[in-house]
Amino acid sequence: MVTIKDVAKRANVAVSTASYALNGVKKVSEETRRKVLQAAEELNYRKNGFAADLKKSKTQTIALILSDLSGPFYSELIRGVQDIAVDHGYDLIACNSLGGQNSTAAKFLTERRVDGCIILAHNITNEMIEKSASPAFPIVLLDRQLERAHTVPIIVDNKNGGYKATTFLIQKGHNNIAFIGGPADSHDGQMRFEGYLEALQEHHIDFQSRWKVTGNFTREGGELAAKIIAAQDERPTAIFVANDEMALGAMEYFQKVGIRVPEDISIIGFDNILESKYTAPKLTTVQHPKYEMGALASHVIFQLLDGEETEKSFTLHTELIMRETVIDIMTKLRG
Amino acid sequence: MVTIKDVAKRANVAVSTASYALNGVKKVSEETRRKVLQAAEELNYRKNGFAADLKKSKTQTIALILSDLSGPFYSELIRGVQDIAVDHGYDLIACNSLGGQNSTAAKFLTERRVDGCIILAHNITNEMIEKSASPAFPIVLLDRQLERAHTVPIIVDNKNGGYKATTFLIQKGHNNIAFIGGPADSHDGQMRFEGYLEALQEHHIDFQSRWKVTGNFTREGGELAAKIIAAQDERPTAIFVANDEMALGAMEYFQKVGIRVPEDISIIGFDNILESKYTAPKLTTVQHPKYEMGALASHVIFQLLDGEETEKSFTLHTELIMRETVIDIMTKLRG
DNA sequence: TGTGCTATTTGAAACGTTTCGAATAAAAGC
DNA sequence: GCTTTTATTCGAAACGTTTCAAATAGCACA
After folding, report:
1. Predicted local confidence at residue A71, as pLDDT
2. What average pLDDT does this structure show over B35-48?
3. How many CB pairs under 8 A join A and B?
4. Which residues form the HTH lacI-type domain (chains A, B) (predicted)?
5. Would the CB atoms of B278 and A132 count as touching at under 8 Å?
6. What is the reported pLDDT for B118?
């Protein structure tokens, strides 16, 4: 393997000079610069980034840790992070936390391979996060409520989102409203449920536990949940589904078995993933500020890295996206 | 910043001993091991991964370089790569090549920050790839035909895929078949087009250039292309669209303006993205072996890393997925 | 010719690990 | 009790850079 020493030797200069030349430091004469560059070229020299980072103790890179690199939800988030990172001249790498404590993610968290990181992954423990954070290694947490030194959470107001969605349904005259939730350990899902509950309560509608069914945030989960709901004798007139993917699955199922959306049953989702505006009918949902979340996260990281003060935590808000899967119950009765 | 030296000092051992203890090397006594571990714990010691990698000159990580970290197409590919990588005890990081020569990707390519990499990004130049590849740094290229030492391409037989799609259309009685292609610099798109051409030729159907329109592989591009096609006086009875995303966009457009799919116009896509089976009607398409591609790429990297011989290049095949957007023209005429 | 500059080049010391070979301590063999 | 073995521990040399402080060269000026 060819190192900077080889380059220096071939160019007949000291390695320090070679280093300066290679990095375009001004103090080296034009001529030696050329010599060094040429030598590097001839030897096909490639610098060892680690060695450099080690010496500089700065990586100019931040990591984005996701529990799953794939999935439609993340695209926009990643774009948000990325845009801001490049603005700051930083590199972004994404890695996943599949495998928990032994995952790639863990390695980045505990081995100082990046200058900071943004985490959206629930299989990384709080403990691990607390241990890793330090002034030189700020962590931004998405969708996780954990305020610590050098750790700032950004959450979206899921409860209010759930409240909005449910209230909307109620305003449209529905009072038999089912809820399809996420896995029990999902904080988001839980909050969305609470919003649902609150709206119900506010309008003096009793919560019926048989109408709360949980899925796993996937399309298939939504199908299954829909099936369970459809199987009951009394059917709700509307469903608030805790994420769009499940909502799409549910719609798919209803259509398959001849239950019309929204004529027979109204559906409102959550997240506003790209796909939801392309379905027929188009999904009514709650906007999750994904891009903004990513961008904000990035911003905060750089503020922390610069030693600036930031808010202790951030809350982003949601917005109702009215499309075609919720119908006014009056219209329905007349229809 | 606390280093292994601090740990060693606090535990009253030599740094070498501390290192052994921390890495679980057997030759250190149980007692000192405990002492060291405790000291590390107390100081909240976190090792510097770079320093370690530097010394070991091995990173145990491979990179996956994509031109865009987002996008539905990549999910499955990533899963494929990931699955195999973890099997080999390697870490995977994804980074993107947005920004070409100055991108994060470039840094990984030229600075030995990983042991090997898989590239699916057309804004990385061939030259750069050739320069970077070496026995110690194998590169697997997806959808790019570039055979060099330590560089193996994996391509899918796009031409044959295009041929199959088009032939299928012809067999269903269509002979006015339009083509919606990708951007000019897309090798895949070009190959798919050639397959289309070949099928046409084989059945003595003249190619009509006004029926070739190009999009940018996005949904919006598909919509636009569909619009252009619909605007012509004579309309084709079928379209072969070079990727599913555009096909969905096209369908969307046709449905919007009251052109029925498949009754008025048949559509066949390419890729078989997840979404395509959830549309109404379900999209007929050509299966692109995304997962397999990722998994194979991973496999090849590890073979190369082990110094084993591999094929010079790999070709993966496609498969027709018949669903609902192609109709037999006879049915149509009768209907 | 010597003095003082500036511009360039250099050697050596880091950066934080791992790992080799040697040193030491403890145990065992006789 | 002395030698041999084995189990631990240790010191020092890497790994490939960057960067500081010092050295040298080149030049102008007196």
Report:
1. 64
2. 94
3. 123
4. 2-56
5. no
6. 97
Note the pLDDT of residue B70: 63
pLDDT confidence of residue B102? 74
The segments of chain A whose pLDDT lies below 70 read 69-72, 332-335
CATH, residue A9: 1.10.260.40
Distance CA(B192)–CA(B194), nearest Å, equals: 5
Would A224 be classed as within a structural domain? Answer: yes
Q: How far apart are CA B314 and CA B160, in angstroms?
A: 15
B151-172 mean pLDDT = 97
CA distance B59 to A50: 10
CB–CB contact A93 B95 (8 Å): yes
Give the integer Cα–Cα distance in Å for A181 and A207. 14
CA A108 – CA A207 distance, rounded (Å): 44
Whether residues B225 and B168 fall in one domain: yes
User: Would you say the C-beta of B32 is within 7 Å of strand D?
Assistant: yes
pLDDT at position B71 is 64
Res B306 pLDDT > 60: yes
Tell me which residue range forms the domain holding B86: 60-157+290-316
A217 touches strand D (CB under 7 A): no
Based on the domain organization, do B148 and B181 belong to the same domain?
Answer: no
By Cβ distance, the residue of B75, B111, B280 closest to A70 is B75
Q: Are A43 and A7 in contact (CB under 8 A)?
A: yes
Q: Measured between beta carbons, which residues in chain A are less than 8 angstroms from residue B252?
A: 278
Minimum distance, in Å, between the CA of residue A111 and any CA atom of chain B: 5
Q: Nearest nucleotide to A53 by CA–C1' distance?
A: D17
Of A179, A253, A180, A251, nearest to A217 by C-alpha is A180
A133 to chain B, any CB pair closer than 8 A? The answer is no
Q: Say if residue A177 is in the same domain as residue A145.
A: no
Please check whether residues B167 and B271 belong to one and the same domain. Answer: yes
**CB proximity A60–strand D (7 Å threshold):** no
B69 in contact with A at a CB cutoff of 8 Å? yes
Among candidate residues B148, B147, B129, B143, the one with its CA nearest the CA of residue B187: B143
Q: What is the DSSP letter of B88?
A: T
A275 at interface of B, judged by CB pairs closer than 8 A: yes
> Do A174 and A230 share a domain, yes or no?
yes
Please report where in the chains the tokens 């909307």 appear, as a residue. A168
**pLDDT at residue B134 is higher than 70:** yes
Answer yes or no: do B49 and A93 touch at CB < 8 A.
no
3 state DSSP class of A196: helix
CA-closest candidate to residue A61, choices A30, A82, A35, A79:
A82
Cβ contact B180:B214 at 8 Å = yes
